[in-house]
Specification:
This protein has about 525 residues and is an alpha/beta fold. The chain is built from 25 helices and six strands. Strands 1, 2, 3, 4, 5 and 6 form a six-stranded mixed beta sheet that branches. Helix 18 runs antiparallel to helix 19. The longest helix has 23 residues. The two termini are about 40 Å apart.
């Protein structure tokens, strides 16, 4: 029987830790998590470990075994009863054997009155059950639940699968509904895993080193896509070594750029910078101006994130833009100009930035039929309009001309960034509760899943600011949790937002408590 660590199809060691965080998160607000399993022994093992770990953190999980209830029982009432325990506050419910009310012994749907009632009571659940709820279901029950109880299914907050089979249709339904990660990637998981098997066979049977390097690089890329980042990065680095031994410098450059891109998203800017510098050094040896410019582009992006706008601007204007202009690469020229506009925007030069996006970048992308770059450029224009106070115009661009493109392309990260901007605008025009819901359900959870540390910390900070402005006492603990996490990440990354976050934290706590909180 597979153990907990090897039984997760997502193959991400942080998934179980996130499940623990879900259960032990402060606050009594309702949130439903669905965990799929294949082997009941695996389910019980995870349940027991989860209950033990939560208890160590001071959180009691009460198990509600549906197998001990009447199948016609009012499940909502039973969940409420489960929260009542003498002298102890139950903060989380763990519900198992609900399969009995959803599928028969052969796995065919048989939605019982208890599940039908739960589906109809969807809108009552958040208020009636102020706790974290973990629902344990088999694959067949997950599929039946997704197909036949869509109202109840819509309140699912997060999803975990500890299973070694291919993802069922239920997962794809969830990903499609919640934009949890790249939908095309989710649908391609079985294909990607089969490709890995074939590539590993290539390594075992083909003695040619070049084939080994190509296979290792591709396996590494797939493993990173599937969440196995540590293993995948190791393979990319090994492939880079093989390319170096073969003197295949161009391939080596591309791998260093890929490795640097990953570390950049993870917020490890110095490590990202090191890999970009390696790529630039090799490109300089080859005297390949295009690859030198590409490496410089990555280095300038890191400087931009660090708030070093003057240095970044100088690289774009003197070392990147002239190269692409000389090469006649009109798309790269437009991209570089767009990034120059981003820097000007950050320095408060709104008119100059807007003119570049509208007249030098967007028309080029439209002429090339590059719809992704069109969406990016329009989004930048909307950002500038927002800064000028033209909120309705900015909102229309984000909702009608940017977000639909990202959704059609399956670009989950950019779609989520756009949703965060939409939420910010809605906040400013008076729709505060809607903004908070977008951040809580459609922005922060997605960035946590994608592992984009900068996007995570900025979402945490913006979300905390909204909760502070709402002025509800029950939000206080969540605000502190969000700000502390955001500050720690910003401080570790060495980016200017750390000071801004600290200034927000300082008025909330006495000095000695603030220091203790940050040192935890």
């Amino acid at each position: 029987m597979a153990n907990l660590e090897s039984n997760s199809i997502i193959s991400n060691p942080n998934d179980y830790e996130r499940l623990v965080r879900f259960v032990t998160r402060e606050g009594a607000d309702f949130a439903l998590c669905l965990v799929q399993y294949r082997d009941p022994n695996i389910r019980d093992k995870i349940m027991n470990k989860l209950e033990f770990d939560a208890k160590q953190l001071g959180v009691l999980i009460k198990t509600l075994d549906f197998g001990e209830l009447d199948h016609n029982a009012n499940l909502l009432e039973e969940m409420q009863k489960g929260l009542v325990q003498e002298n102890t506050q139950v903060k989380a419910l763990s519900i198992k054997r609900l399969d009995l009310a959803i599928v028969d012994a052969m796995g065919n749907p048989r939605i019982s009155p208890s599940i039908q009632g739960l589906n109809l009571a969807r809108d009552q659940i958040p208020k009636a059950v102020p706790a974290r709820v973990v629902l344990w279901l088999s694959e067949a029950a997950c599929n039946a639940l997704a197909t036949n109880t869509t109202d109840f299914y819509d309140v699912i907050y997060s999803f975990y699968q500890f299973d070694d089979q291919e993802p069922p249709r239920m997962i794809q339904h969830y990903l499609d509904a919640q934009n949890w990660q790249n939908i095309s990637l989710a649908q391609d998981i079985p294909k990607l895993k089969r490709e890995v098997m074939l590539l590993k066979n290539t390594i075992e049977t083909n003695v040619e080193i070049s084939s080994h390097a190509d296979a290792l690089a591709r396996i590494g890329q797939i493993e990173i896509l599937l969440g196995e980042s540590h293993t995948g990065l190791g393979r990319l680095e090994k492939a880079a070594e093989l390319y170096r031994s073969l003197d295949q410098k161009t391939d080596e450059i591309h791998l260093f750029l890929q490795i640097g891109d990953f570390y950049n998203l993870q917020g490890q800017l110095e490590t990202a910078n090191t890999n970009f510098q390696k790529a630039k050094e090799i490109a300089s040896q080859l005297q390949n101006s295009a690859l030198i410019a590409e490496s410089n582009d990555r280095l300038a992006n890191v400087l931009f994130i660090q708030g070093k706008f003057d240095e970044a601007l100088e690289i774009f204007e003197k070392q990147i833009l002239p190269v692409f202009e000389a090469l006649g690469d009109i798309r790269s020229v437009a991209v570089a100009r767009g990034k120059i506009a981003d820097i000007l925007f950050s320095r408060g030069k709104l008119d100059e930035a807007l003119e570049i996006h509208e007249k030098q970048a967007l028309p080029v992308f439209e002429a090339l039929g590059d719809i992704l770059s069109v969406a990016v450029a329009r989004g930048k224009i909307a950002d500038i309009l927002f800064s000028r106070g033209k909120l309705d115009e900015a909102l229309e661009i984000h909702e009608k001309h940017e977000l639909p493109i990202y959704e059609s392309l399956g670009d989950v990260r950019e779609a989520t960034l756009t949703r965060s901007k939409i939420a910010n605008i809605l906040w400013h025009i008076g729709h505060q509760n809607k903004s908070i819901e977008i951040y809580r359900h459609d922005v922060l959870p997605v960035f946590l899943r994608l592992g984009d540390k900068r996007a995570i910390l900025m979402s945490q900070y913006n979300f905390a600011q909204m909760l502070i402005a709402r002025r509800k006492v029950e939000d206080f603990s969540e605000v502190l949790q969000l700000l502390r996490a955001a500050f720690k990440a910003a401080d570790e990354m060495g980016i200017p937002e750390a000071d801004e976050i600290m200034k927000t934290l300082q008025p909330l706590l006495p000095k000695e408590l603030l220091e203790g909180l940050l040192n935890l």
